[in-house]
Specification:
Strand order of the largest sheet: 5-4-6-7-1-8-13-12-11
CATH topology of the largest domain: Peroxisomal Thiolase, Chain A, domain 1
Strand content: 15-25%
Number of strands: 13
Number of helices: 12
Distance between the termini: 23 Å
Radius of gyration: 22 Å
Length: 392
């Protein structure tokens, strides 16, 4: 994983580990609850979630489901998609904002999946930012040579924690239950040809917004929630737009050429506003929150899985990059990107061809060089205008 302090800097050559996502999966709670039923359960006006937030239904777990069962199903499906047996895993990196039991989620997954004893297991935090944290850790494990194959898994069950007797509906009614899983390998592996390669990640924390959302346990087993929805909404949109602007600048990939945005989705209306602010089509944001609710750390995972699934159906040369952006309480933030394997090959061939032409023709005339520099300056200025630096 390569990290640099966010700033208005041009794209630089990096030593980012060449790691590919070769398979993915996502699961939601098996019960689909119309948002009007959730309105009723939380004592809110009928239709409030649908009209105010754009949530049509929420995914809730059944009696027999929990974080572990959802995570295991997603992981097993991802392993099958990668034609990879559990015994080939070197690490399991898990994240959840609702699983607080011991053993941890990664340890329980280790037992449930029947992986070998010397397969490592660890858990990352970050709440809704948890997936990006886990992907960055997995990328580092593979890049450092500590692993060849890593499973990144998220799982969140809010319906048993954010209940009507513990929190207000304006907060608890937004959340559903889900899980996601990704199998990561080095791009040198033969299975990486149909995959997407992870780019860099950037992270930070805008502490001035920390008070917008705070959740604490109380002695009577209830939850003390401080939730300034209006302030949090403004902060979320502003911060994610800045994160995406920095991802665009760091990657050198114009946002208009991005095929999918796998982002935090507080609610569908805010996702539509983010798309408008960024000047991209709302259709490039997979509609996870609209049909399942905010899935916590699994929202970004479910959105990334959907973006990868859509790309898989397209001709190879038509596949486009994917941007990642998410937030966590605090206000933690992070972003990154993925590029299709075909795009890496095209860029490599283009650079090789340019190098060959340069060696044959020698230095270009100064006038041509001046024009080239002016053109590059124009291209570089465009992303820099879309937002300030990610850091506040």
């Amino acid at each position: 994983m390569t990290q640099r302090a966010p700033g208005k800097q041009e794209k630089q050559p990096t030593n980012t580990a060449k790691v590919s996502v070769i398979s993915s999966a996502a699961k939601t709670g098996s019960r689909v609850i119309p948002s009007e039923e959730v309105d009723r359960a939380f004592g809110m006006p009928m239709g409030k979630l649908r009209k105010r937030a754009g949530i049509e239904s929420l995914a809730y777990v059944a009696e027999s489901e929990n974080e572990l069962t959802l995570a295991a199903k997603a992981a097993q499906e991802a392993l099958r998609g990668a034609s990879c047996g559990p015994q080939h895993l070197d690490w399991i990196v898990a994240t959840s904002e609702t699983h607080h039991d011991y053993p941890s989620l990664s340890a329980q997954l280790h037992s449930r999946l029947l992986v070998r004893e010397n397969c490592g297991a660890l858990d990352t935090g970050g709440a809704c930012l948890g997936l990006l944290n886990a992907l960055a850790v997995a990328q580092s494990l593979i890049g450092s040579g500590q692993a060849k194959t890593v499973a990144v898994v998220t799982a969140d069950v809010h319906s048993r924690t954010l209940t009507p007797d513990r929190v207000a509906g304006e907060f608890g009614g937004l959340f559903g239950d889900g899980a996601s899983a990704f199998i990561l390998r080095s791009t040198t592996h033969k299975d990486s040809k149909n995959s997407y390669r992870l780019g860099e990640f950037l992270f930070g924390c805008a502490g001035q917004y920390a008070a917008a959302i705070q959740v604490n346990d109380t002695k009577d087993d209830s939850l003390e929630v401080q939730f300034d929805g209006e302030a949090l909404s403004r902060a979320a949109i502003t911060r994610m737009e800045k994160v995406l602007a920095s991802v665009e600048l760091r990657s050198g990939i114009p946002r208009g050429s991005v095929g999918g945005f796998a982002t935090h989705q507080p609610n569908p209306h805010l996702v539509a506003l983010l798309a408008k602010q960024c000047g991209v089509s709302p259709s490039t944001f997979p509609p996870i929150a609209r049909v399942s609710g905010n899935l916590g750390s699994s929202t970004c995972g479910a959105a990334l899985h959907e973006a990868l699934r859509i790309a898989e159906k397209q001709p190879r040369d038509d596949r486009r990059p994917i941007f990642l952006a998410s937030l966590g309480p605090g206000l933690l933030f992070g972003g990154g990107w993925l590029t299709p394997h075909e795009m890496e090959n095209r860029n490599s061939k283009f650079e090789t061809r340019n190098s060959e032409l340069s060696s044959r023709s020698g230095p270009r005339p100064s006038r041509e060089a001046d024009v080239h520099c002016r053109d590059n300056a124009t291209l570089q200025r465009r992303p820099a205008r879309v937002g300030d630096d990610v850091a506040a």
